[in-house]
Design a protein that fits this description.
The complex is a heterodimer of chains A (about 160) and B (about 290).
Chain A (H helix, E strand, L loop, with lengths): L2 H9 L5 H12 L2 H18 L8 H11 L7 H6 L5 E3 L18 E3 L11 H13 L16 E4 L2
Chain B lengths: L3 H4 L7 H14 L2 E9 L2 E12 L2 E8 L6 E5 L2 E3 L5 H6 L11 H4 L3 E11 L2 E10 L6 E7 L5 E7 L5 E12 L27 E3 L7 E8 L4 E7 L4 E8 L7 E5 L2 E8 L2 E7 L3 H10 E3 L2
Antiparallel strand pairs in B: 1-2, 1-10, 2-3, 3-4, 4-5, 6-7, 7-8, 8-9, 9-10, 11-18, 12-13, 13-14, 14-17, 15-16, 16-17
Classes of the chains: A mainly alpha (about 160), B mainly beta (about 290).
Chain lengths: ~160, ~290
């Protein structure tokens, strides 16, 4: 089985957990396979609308764990009701059920009614960069007086 | 080594001691487990693995529900497959969203200890972090009694309602606190190259408590990236030439607020897990250097 076939099998949940992990790590280091992976993801999500709950033991344990302490699950929606808004969701994601497992993220354009339906691609890039620093140890080093720690030029 | 205050177990730990120990544990222990991330009505189950070694930290985050993917952060560099918005949203689980600098955050948050609780079949101490004003969000942390790892972390709005939370449902430790005395090198250039590009922007009045932590400049894109923090919350500011179709106004992804604006013919984008008011104050503070 070549690498592409293994990625395909991975997407179809035909590999064991260990094999899946191995393929995932190979994909990260191979730009070509990474592109294949992304393409398969888009196709799969379009075909399946990514709304099928993953009914596994994990799901049961999660619900059990969260049930131990009541949690409000829709604070965002409550807050947004105060202002005119437009709830945006990825085109291939259908409406979702409370507590379903494995849902796509929701984007919400609150005060940008003229925005296109798709979020600008650069926002994902920004978020990804931002998250790379969030919780990273080098950002949390003590910074006496709040002074600028460093200025980089990224080639 | 663990902080001295933590090692002296005969003295009851303060909330600040717990947070200091948490920060150390998150970055220095080897652990893995199943993690649930919840925001609004979304739930995602992931496998998190953290390895601490002489060269730094390596972390893996794999989706266990929905379409599979894996993210790796190796010594501060993120490796993630493209094309999946879930990847972008969930990346911050790496590092357990654990930014903490006590001296900087202390004036702006009230820390206290809550009850003990059980999470992932382990005994946890609740640490409450309440903001002193409306420019930042609170946290309720459930820290493992033994290791001080955050077994559960809840981001709270001003009504104390959960905005998002991260929860371990299973945790395996690979070493003990006593074994992890490694000091990680800081994987960054600290030469403080204050070039002309770095001096193009100034900030008239930052939101109270926030200070600039980092600045990157990508000359080929003419893009500045500034990171600001109050010791607990972090926000990013991106500035690059204006392009039609860019975000103007507020947006949101998960628990992360986003504000876009066109100023000085530049595209300014601010984002972070902070209230919209904080992003707006930050946006109003940006000025070009005359």
């Amino acid at each position: 089985m070549n690498a592409r076939e293994r990625v395909s099998c991975c997407m179809d949940d035909e590999l064991s957990a260990d094999e899946h992990m191995a393929v995932s790590r190979v994909v990260l280091d191979d730009p070509e396979l990474s592109a294949v992976w992304a393409r398969y993801q888009r196709v799969r999500r379009l075909l399946q609308h990514d709304t099928t709950p993953d009914v596994s033991d994990v799901a049961a344990r999660v619900q059990q764990a969260l049930a131990a302490e009541p949690t409000v699950f829709a604070p965002v929606a409550q807050r947004l009701q105060r202002a005119p808004r437009r709830r945006w969701q990825m085109a291939f994601a259908a409406s979702v059920a409370l507590l379903a497992i494995g849902l796509v993220p929701q984007w919400m354009f609150v005060e940008a009614p003229d925005q296109a339906l798709l979020p600008p691609a650069y926002l994902n890039r920004y978020l990804s960069e931002h998250h790379a620093y969030l919780g990273a140890s080098h950002v949390t080093q003590p910074n006496a007086g709040g002074a600028l720690m460093a200025v980089h030029h990224v080639p | 080594m663990l902080p001295a205050a933590v090692q002296a177990q005969t003295v009851p730990l303060t909330a600040a001691d717990w947070l200091q120990a948490m920060h150390h544990a998150v970055h220095h222990l080897d652990y893995e487990g199943r993690v649930v991330y919840q925001v609004g009505s979304e739930l995602e189950v992931m496998h998190l693995q953290h390895q601490s070694h002489a060269a730094g930290e390596t972390e893996y985050l794999s989706a266990l529900s929905g379409v599979p993917y894996q993210i790796r952060r190796d010594r501060g560099v993120m490796h993630a497959p493209p094309g999946d918005d879930r990847v972008v949203q969930n990346q911050h689980i790496l590092g357990m969203n654990c930014l903490f600098h006590y001296q900087q955050m202390a004036p702006h948050y009230r820390l206290s200890l809550g009850k003990q609780h059980r999470v992932a079949d382990r005994l946890a101490q609740i640490v409450l972090i309440e903001p002193q004003d409306r420019l930042r969000l609170g946290r309720r942390l459930y820290l493992d009694q033994e290791t001080k790892l955050p077994l559960r972390s809840v981001l709270l709005d001003h009504q104390q309602q959960p905005l998002a939370q991260t929860l371990f449902i299973q945790l395996t430790l690979k070493n003990t606190p006593a074994m992890s005395s490694r000091q990680h090198p800081i994987p960054m250039d600290t030469s403080s190259d204050r070039s002309a590009a770095a001096q193009r922007w100034q900030f008239a009045a930052l939101p109270a408590g926030f200070a600039m932590q980092l600045h990157h400049y990508r000359p080929e894109k003419q893009r500045d990236h500034f990171i600001f923090s109050d010791g607990l919350s972090m926000m990013s500011l991106y500035i690059e030439p204006w392009m039609d179709g860019s975000l103007q106004g507020f947006s949101k992804q998960g628990a992360t607020e986003i504000l876009g604006a066109r100023k000085y013919n530049q595209r300014l984008t601010l984002l972070g897990q902070v209230p919209q008011e904080t992003l707006q104050q930050m946006m109003d503070a940006v000025r070009p250097v005359p």
